[in-house]
What does this fold into?
Amino acid sequence: MIQGQSYITEEKARGLTAIFKQQLSVFSVKVPWQAVYLHIDMHAGCGWNHDVGVIGSPVLFAEIATEMNVPFFMVAVEKNKSLAHQLEYALSPYRANVTVIAKDNADVCDELPGIVARRYKRPDSVVGSVLIDPNTPHSIKSGLPWGQFANVFQQFKRMDALFNFPGTSMKRIKHYDAEYVCIADVPRLLNKPHWMIRKPMGSQQFTMLVGRQCELKECKNIDLVNWNSEVGMEYRKLAELTTKRYQEWRMEQRGIVQGELF
It folds into this structure.
């Protein structure tokens, strides 16, 4: 499966819509009006999922930012040149605010300081997000340049990490993949100090993890809670465990609570 041909479905699009709106709302309130939000989509695809007839994540973000009247600049990464060409066409209404790069994630991470410096006067102060939405469980294990991603967040501390964890797909490979990356590994691998997690969505249990430099209030209207909260732990287990094992874990937790009461 190629880097950017994301299996974005209607339920995933709804989830991304909520996250994008939340990110841009916070930006509008906390950042000076003349600032430009930087969004980087590391698995951009062609702009439209023809298999299921759903808009792709880079076009979705551009539409939402435009509707909310938030100035933005987007770097859309798609290493397949044919798909990148299609994406450029899909993003043509936003051409002045978008650059499409047909390279591997690792190469883009290494080149990102130069890309940002050409667009922003103070690159170290840039505010925005990096969407990492891997296509398959195997790309999470061996196809993601974790080290380069961590360096990006080290250099651009005000860039938030948006990691879309495919819960159902990861469960299918967990028991026979020695290099399995579990949901609990992501915060450490991406080098962000404060994390939130959204409730797993739909049959595929897409679980959005949001890593930030500072702690923000929970957004319970979109089921986005603190990573280390009781609800956050439940969401993590729901994304990681099979249905049977999850129910067993819940029973175990109830037993612990009952034991503390007596």
